[in-house]
Design brief:
Chain lengths: ~110, ~120
Amino acid sequence: QSALTQPASVSGSPGQSITISCIGTSSDIGGYNYVSWYQQHPGKVPKLMIYEVSNRPSGVSNRFSGSKSGNTASLSISGLQAEDEADYYCSSYTNTGTLVFGGGTKLTVL
Amino acid sequence: QVQLQESGPGLVKPSQTLSLTCTVSGGSISIGSYYWTWIRQPAGKGPEWIGRMYTSGTTNYNPSLKSRVTMSLDTSKNQFSLKLTSVTATDTAVYYCAREKGGTGAPDYWGQGTLVTVSS
């Protein structure tokens, strides 16, 4: 299974909105509504931000939203805050019953 | 609230077997609606899913690691374990245990992670 494809970096100013893409195939993202997104600050444990494409776990800000179109999933963050600066990873269920992660996107808040 | 904690050697010699245990507190691993998962993350890279175990004993493993991985459950101790054989330097990573709620494909509770270095 190949890793999902994410841009290496994105940036935005405080208050702005950004979107991170995650490209897969019909065997993973395109075939299932089991896409998740994780936020990871340096030296910390990944934190689940979005599951099942667009659902937020309890306690996650509604500034975070997820969507999917075909083989591409997206994470959007509105009203950027300094604390949002982190690495973001997507993951998807696959047709072999496994999970696959993306390579990660570093978000810089300018 | 459920908590997970990894334990095991931080240094393993090449060709030997990496063994880790995850102790779960705040909930029983016997609950059928959860899957018990191992994930690893090499320094500076994205996470890599290793595999999951169901309470029934059924397992799913990453195809790239399948020939070297074994997972097990000890419900009496509320623990689950990972064994990875014939390790090389490329197996050096932070290893996480995690809980995946059935039907979501999304590990939600993770342990703090433990760094395992493969070196002679």
